[in-house]
Structures are given as structure tokens and as C-alpha cells.
Specification:
Pfam families: Glyco_trans_1_4 (PF13692), Glyco_transf_4 (PF13439). The protein is α/β, with parallel strands linked by helices. The protein is 43% helix and 14% strand. Strands 3-2-1-4-5-6-7 form a seven-stranded parallel beta sheet, sandwiched between helices. The radius of gyration is 22 Å and the shape is elongated.
């Protein structure tokens, strides 16, 4: 969550942008924070609408630090992760806030934020464009399951109210094309980006853990498989230790699995905290996820040239680029164990060179400033399309001209 090192491109006219999302935690929140700073630096007015009940003290601190960049403020209302009758009240709150600040852009993030941003009705004033960044979300359900079919049907309906899709990875864009198939709206791939300071070397801590995991404590993150791989490595005589940093709904069951596998003395749990100090405390970062979009933890670890073992899922191959063959299949404890062992046994100079090359590749391809500029470009394209539609409707006499108050 870094401020841009240089101002983003100057805006010909300033937008009034509301970012709408559920939980102020994790990579999605980091993405919104970075965009907010970039957009404010470029002269736009930005606000946030998010859940009132998640994130705890860490979210409060992050939102307070962001306040100087939020000309349109922060609105927090109760939002549930899954569909719930309370969604009607949250939807009304988003609409009221959008109208009160005369929002030009409603940018929804994640499945819930995307639904609110695209469904809410904003009566009066100038037309508002609706942008959507999925961050994986509903696209990560396994194809063929009932939940996948349900959410893809919902995405198909919501696509009709989307002015521009800003997919954070090629993986999610492909999923949308395959399972939703909407061609009506504009679509851009805008990779998550990171700042220059995140490429600075991390000074190793004294007596580091052998392995470190950073992220949500959920089974879907592949953590049971990681624990099985650790048990296998220890059974081979490797006395490894694992640090798991984060929180989540499966924390208690994971602690039980640690006990059942006899790993109590080998695994430490700590609450969520900034990633770079955690990287310094581990020799190898492990990302064993079953599904991802374009995870910031992988970008951040790769940028810092941290030795890294990750699964071949979602947009992670996009981050690894030419090194994608180093990724391991998900849900396979033996393959994960073998990949960790290979990195541990690699000659130190060769290991340093390999991950330095990955860092250099990420630096070229995942710029925070490019991310910010591409998002604004997507908004501008949506405004141009809206003006063209209005001009065509006026020329044909089928509708009143569309008055778009701002745009590039």
C-alpha cells in the first residue's frame, strides 16, 4: 500500500470515483488503496464504500492513513460475504452515497462489491459508468459445480450493467470469456502493480523459519496440503519449521491438523502483519493455493527475490512468466514436498540468481503506475463509448442525448 513515486498522468477532467468492495483486508484492499493514492495524485476525487464489520484495527488504521487522499470519504455499511437479505439495505446505501457525491464512476471490486456497484440505481444527475474488477471472486469456483453455475449465471446478468471490465489477470479474463461469454462491454486486462521500494532486498532475520506462509487461513489456500508436505519432509529427517501469518475462518481446524500431524513444535501461528518483515523471517515463501487470481503475496515475494514455491493456479503463471515451469500442481502434497526440497537443496548462488531473475522480470511487467494509468484509460474508454451511444440514439431520434459530465 504505497504512494506513487511520481504523479500519474494528469487528468483532462477530474472524475468523482467511488470504489465499492466488501472486506478491507487482503490483496483486494491493497489494490484499492494503491488505486486511491494514484487517482488522488492525478487530480481525481475518490471515495470508498466497504463493510463495517471486517478488518478490525488494522483496517481502521489503513483507512485512517488513506483519509487525506479520500476527498469523497469512507462509508462503511454491513455487508455479508454470501448473498443475504441485508444486501438490499447495503445496495440502497451504495446508491445513496453515489448520488450524494455525484459519482461519475462506480468501480466495484470482488463479487459482492461488483454486484453492488452494478445493481444500484442512482437517480438524477449525470450518468454513472460502472467498472468491475473481479479479483478472482466468483470466477474461482470449480467449473461444473452448482455454485459455479449459479455465480456465472449471475455474472452474465450483471455483465449487461457493466461499462468496462478491468480484469486483474488473463486467467480471470479467460474464465469470463469461457463461462459468461459477454462481448457487450469493454474489457481490459490491468495487472496488479507494485512499487519500486518493494524490489529492495530483504535483510534476513537471525534464526529464520525454514518456510513461511502469508495470507488468509482458509483450506482453499491449500494449507492442509502444506501441512502434509511439511510432515513428509520431517519424516525424511528434515527438521523444518513453518511460520503461518494471517487469520481466517479455518484457523482452528488448521491448528487441529497441526496437532494431529505431530507438528506442534514445528509450526507457529501469528496474526496478519506487513509482509516484508515476515519475508525476512523465512528462508522460503510457500503459496500452496487451490485457486488464485493474481495474488499480491506472490508479486511481493518475487519482487524481493525471496525463494518461492507456488502452485500452478490462476494468474500465478503470469507472474512467473518464463519460470512458470517451476510451479507445482495444486492439491498434491508429494509434489509440493519435492518442490520445497529442490529449493532447499539448490546451490545458494544458483538459487539467488534464479530468484533475482524472477524479480527483474516482475519489475518490467507489474508497474504500479502502469496499473493506475490503465484503470483510468479504461474509465475514459467507457465514457467515450457512452458518448457514442448517446450520439447514435440522438441521431436516430430514439432517445434523448446522453449528458456525460466528465471524461477524457
Amino acid at each position: 500500500m504505497l504512494a506513487p513515486s511520481v504523479p500519474l498522468i494528469e487528468a483532462a477532467q477530474a472524475y468523482r470515483i467511488l470504489h465499492v468492495f466488501r472486506a478491507p483486508v487482503g490483496g483486494l484492499f491493497r489494490h484499492v488503496v494503491d488505486l486511491t493514492r494514484l487517482q488522488a495524485a492525478a487530480g481525481h476525487q475518490v471515495g470508498i464504500v466497504c463493510d463495517a464489520s471486517t478488518g478490525g484495527e488494522r483496517a481502521e488504521a489503513a483507512l485512517s492513513a488513506l483519509a487525506p487522499h479520500l476527498a469523497l470519504g469512507v462509508t462503511r455499511v454491513p455487508m455479508r460475504r454470501n448473498p443475504h437479505p441485508s444486501d438490499a439495505a447495503a445496495l440502497l446505501a451504495v446508491a445513496r452515497r453515489a448520488r450524494s457525491v455525484a459519482a461519475d464512476v462506480l468501480h466495484g471490486h470482488g463479487a459482492k462489491g461488483g454486484a453492488y456497484a452494478r445493481l444500484c440505481h442512482v437517480p438524477g444527475g449525470a450518468p454513472t459508468i460502472r467498472a468491475y474488477t473481479p479479483h478472482g471472486g466468483s470466477y474461482n469456483y470449480r467449473p461444473g459445480t452448482a455454485m459455479h453455475r449459479l455465480y456465472m449465471a449471475a455474472e452474465g446478468l450483471l455483465a449487461r450493467r457493466t461499462d468496462v471490465f478491468l480484469f486483474e489477470s488473463e486467467y480471470v479474463a479467460r474464465r469470463h470469456s469461457a463461462y459468461v461469454g459477454s462481448e457487450a462491454a469493454l474489457a481490459r486486462i490491468v495487472h496488479n502493480g507494485i512499487g519500486a521500494t518493494e524490489f529492495e532486498p530483504v535483510e534476513p532475520a537471525a534464526d529464520p523459519f525454514d518456510l513461511v506462509y502469508v495470507g488468509e487461513l482458509r483450506d482453499a489456500k491449500g494449507l492442509p496440503v502444506l501441512l502434509q508436505a511439511l510432515a513428509q519432509l520431517r519424516a525424511e529427517g528434515r527438521r523444518l519449521r513453518l511460520l503461518m501469518v494471517g487469520s481466517g475462518p479455518d484457523a482452528e481446524s488448521l491448528a487441529g491438523q497441526v496437532r494431529d500431524l505431530g507438528l506442534t513444535e514445528s509450526v507457529a501461528f501469528e496474526p496478519a502483519q506487513p509482509i516484508r518483515p515476515v519475508l525476512a523471517r523465512g528462508r522460503i515463501m510457500v503459496v500452496p493455493s487451490f485457486a488464485e487470481s493474481l495474488p499480491y503475496v506472490v508479486l511481493e515475494a518475487a519482487a524481493a527475490a525471496q525463494p518461492l514455491v507456488a502452485t500452478d493456479v490462476g494468474g500465478i503463471p503470469e507472474i512467473f512468466g518464463a519460470a512458470a515451469s517451476d510451479l507445482v500442481p495444486p492439491r498434491d502434497a508429494s509434489a509440493l514436498k519435492a518442490a520445497i526440497a529442490r529449493v532447499l537443496d539448490e546451490e545458494p548462488e544458483s538459487r539467488r540468481a534464479r530468484f533475482a531473475a524472477l524479480s527483474a522480470s516482475v519489475r518490467l511487467r507489474f508497474s504500479m503506475e502502469r496499473m493506475g494509468a490503465d484503470v483510468l484509460s479504461g474509465y475514459a474508454a467507457a465514457f467515450r463509448a457512452r458518448r457514442r451511444e448517446g450520439a447514435l440514439a440522438e441521431a436516430s431520434g430514439t432517445a434523448a442525448p446522453v449528458q456525460v459530465r466528465t471524461g477524457l
